[in-house]
Each structure stands twice: as C-alpha cells, then as structure tokens.
Specification:
binds adenosine-5'-triphosphate; five-stranded mixed beta sheet; 431 residues; elongated; binds magnesium ion
C-alpha cells in the first residue's frame, strides 16, 4: 500500500459537523460587523516577506522565527501571512482607500510556525477589524463595545478585558531608557529570551510568558507614569466611555502586545478557561503604521480574534444548535424504475417552489428498507417516499422520522403548498 499522507503538523482539517460550528460563528460575526457598518476586505494569503518585516518588526517572535517564508521560482521572497493587519494596510494604501475614514474587516487562515498545543496551531483562523482615519478614543471604545456585544451573542461568559496605553513614540523613548536601566540592574535574573529582548527591544521583556520572570516584570517602571497630557486624556476618555457603557475592565500596565506597531490604546480579551492560551482577542491603536508602509500618515486602530480559541468557549448547547442546520428537512426516497427516474426532477420542482427547503435526495438505488435507514441517519425531519405505485396515483408518501407518526399520502400536484406547513407541524426532535 502507498504511504498514507497526512495534514501538516499543527494544521487541521475541519470536518462536519464541526464545520457547522465555524459557519455559524462566521455568520454571527458577519452579521454583527455589517450591522456596525464595517465592510469586508479580502487579501491574498501570500505577501512579500518585506511587508511583514517592515510592519510587524524584525525583532518579534513572528518575524524572527515563526514565518513560513520561501523564495518562489522567480526568486521573490514571499511569506504566508502570519496576521492580517499588514496586508490590510498594504491594500488600503495600494487602492487609495485612505482618503476617507474606513471601517474594514477580514477573515481567514493565518500561518505561524509555533509549537502546536491546545489553542496554538500553525494554521489558525482570525477575524480582524481595522479602522483608518479616526483618531479619537471614541473609535477605540466602539471596537471594544462591539467585541463585548459579540461575546454576549455567542453566549461567552468569564472573559475579562485588560487595557493599557502605550503612549506615543517620544513617551516610549523616555520610558524605554528607564526600563533598560532597570533591566540592566537585574540582568542576572533575566531568562535567555529576555536578555536578548533587552538589547533589541526592551519593552518586549514585559510580554514574556515565563512565570519565573513575572515578579521582576512586576517591579519594572510603569509606562502609564510616562504618558504626556494628550495620551493621558485619550486613555482617560476611553476608560470613562467603558464606565458609561458598564463594560468592566482592568488596567494592566504590563500589557504591551507582541507586535511593534502599537501606540496608545492596547487591549486584550482574556479567559481563564483555556489554560495558557487565554487571549481570545487582542488589538490596539497603530497610528504610525500606514506611514511606515509608505502611505500618508493615517491614524488606525484594530483588533484580531482567534476563532479556534473562541469556538472552545462557546457553550456546547449553542454549537449543538448550529449543527441542526446540517440536518435536512426532508430525505427523498425513491424505489422503482419510474420513481427513480422522476425523483430528482421532482426535487428540482420542490426546490423552486420552496427556496428555503433543505432537501436531500437519495442517490444510488436500493430497497425501501435501506433507503429509510439512510434517511434516518441523515437526521432529516421527515422522509418523502416515492414508489411507482404512488407515482401512478399522483401521490407521494410523507413519513415523519423523529416522531411516532404514520406515513400519509400527499398529492404531488400541490406538494409545494402543503409541505411547508406540514413540516412546521412535524416535531424536529433532538438528535
Ligand atoms: P499569543 O500571546 O497567544 O501568542 P499573540 O499576541 O501572538 O497571541 P495576535 O498576533 O495578537 O496574538 O493574534 C490575535 C489572536 O489570534 C490571539 O489572541 C489568539 O486568539 C489568536 N492566535 C494567535 N496565534 C495563534 C495560534 N498560533 N494559534 C491559534 N490562535 C492564535
Ligand atoms: Mg504569539
């Protein structure tokens, strides 16, 4: 036998019925974002590696060690996208979208060569939102409020909001100097990663996930103490907005985010129920990035959420409900030469008459008994049963599959009118 091929480590097939959970989640987000006036943008999965080097930053985990980069046959240095913001900014500049405020969103697969574990994969999926041209704390607030609403709609409980302000770049320069001298004083206690980060990008020491580093990090100077008047006012207005909207939050002065391009507001939604991979949504303001990538200076703020982690948090009952959409309303059984010849044509007529009808047609013949078995397994609410006898009489059998009820004949000529009401009255059992 030929060697069996498998999916790449850390990359997963999404099969039914789980695919129905995904479709349901994507639909929820689609409807919510559309209702808030956000418009979808789709960008390629492959970009020039330079895009990510210039936006995410050379000294980040992603660019240093997680990207899937390769030279294509023409010698171009390309990378599978590890996140969506860079592509979104590139596209917005390239297509001249930035001469007016924009509320955009994207969804899709992202690729990072991390160590696979629960909540951490090499191909994972994000839905992200990016806004451009809006500078005030009101848009920061809107983004947080819409994620808050989404969690409520998805039935998520026990997610908490952490926020911080990273100030502006000149404020960070002063902070960075003081942080550096603090870290230098404690250099012996720094782990290897942090020693390296201390030299290249000291703020990212605060982002360390090593438990042994936490008390040292807790003693470091606090960025919030370095904010100037404008940054302070921006942050205070965001906090006041959250208070008014009664959205609970914690200020976490150590929240710096892994990517280099953030300024002022940063936020994360975190859960305690997913172990170490607790961040389900993260974002912030990145006013400098558009200019850094060659566009006119344009304020921007956005976030991304990880769908794998979100799906783990959605209540089982909610997901079970989503699976119900996989069960057809009707399973069409046909036995006999004439009936089999007629079945698919009849099904087409029904589909035209009842556009929302979920109708699964049996294909491949077989006895009534074997077709009924498949009808049952499909999860259909009822079976439509067509034999040559019924066909000759101008009828079709209707047999509820989830309730104890007799098969009854229905007139073929008026099937399109009788079926919807009949289905409504037929109990959809829990399967
Ligand atoms: P983490 O700190 O967990 O590594 P991150 O800061 O690298 O996350 P972002 O780049 O901000 O994450 O991505 C936003 C969201 O995407 C995360 O909050 C998480 O839900 C999800 N995410 C990031 N990396 C992965 C991954 N490898 N597998 C699954 N989900 C991920
Ligand atoms: Mg990461």
């Amino acid at each position: 036998m030929a060697e069996q091929l498998r999916a790449v480590r850390g990359m997963h097939d999404i099969l039914p019925p789980t695919s129905a959970h995904w479709a349901w989640l994507e639909r929820q987000v689609y409807d919510l974002l559309t209702a808030y006036g956000y418009r979808e943008l789709r960008t390629p999965l492959l970009e020039s590696s330079a895009l990510f080097q210039r936006s995410i930053g050379e000294v980040t985990d992603i660019v240093e060690k997680e990207m899937y980069s390769f030279a294509d046959r023409g010698g171009d240095d390309l990378s599978l996208r590890p996140e969506g913001t860079a592509s979104c900014v590139r596209a917005a500049i390239e297509h001249g979208l930035l001469n007016q405020p924009q509320r955009l969103w994207y969804q899709g697969a992202m690729f990072r060569r991390e160590r696979p574990q629960r909540g951490r994969y090499r191909q994972f999926h994000q839905i992200g939102v990016e806004t451009f041209g809006l500078t005030g704390p009101d848009i920061d607030l809107e983004l947080i409020l819409l994620t808050h609403r989404l969690w409520q709609q998805l039935g998520l409980s026990a997610v908490r909001l952490e926020i911080n302000s990273l100030g502006d770049s000149h404020e960070r320069v002063r902070y960075r100097a003081d942080l550096l001298s603090y870290l230098e004083q404690h250099q012996d206690a720094l782990d290897e990663d942090s020693q390296r980060r201390m030299v290249t990008n000291p703020l990212r020491v605060l982002d360390s996930k090593n438990p042994a580093m936490q008390s040292l990090i807790a003693g470091a100077p606090t960025l919030l103490d370095y904010l100037g008047e404008e940054s302070k006012a921006h942050f205070a207005a965001l906090c006041a907005g959250l208070d008014r909207a009664e959205v609970a939050y914690q200020i976490n002065p150590r929240l710096v985010r892994g990517l280099d391009y953030y300024n002022r507001t940063v936020f994360e939604w975190i859960t305690a129920s997913l172990g170490a991979q607790g961040t389900i949504c993260a974002g912030g303001r990145y006013d400098g990035l558009v200019e850094q990538l060659g566009g006119r200076p344009t304020p921007a703020v956005g976030f991304a959420m990880g769908l794998e982690r979100l799906l783990e948090l959605i209540p089982k009952a909610q997901l079970h409900h989503a699976e119900q959409t996989l069960h057809p309303d009707l399973y069409l059984i046909a036995v006999g030469a004439k009936a089999e010849a007629e079945a698919l044509v009849l099904a087409e007529r029904l589909r035209s008459q009842c556009p929302t009808l979920q109708l699964l047609c049996h294909c491949g013949g077989g006895s009534f008994k074997s077709q009924f078995k498949k009808a049952d397994r499909s999860g259909a609410t009822a079976a439509l049963v067509l034999g040559d006898q019924e066909l000759a009489a101008g009828t079709i059998g209707y047999k509820p599959l989830r309730a104890d009820a007799q098969q009854q004949p229905l007139a073929l000529a008026s099937l399109g009118e009788t079926l919807p009401a009949l289905l409504k009255s037929t109990q959809k059992d829990e399967i």
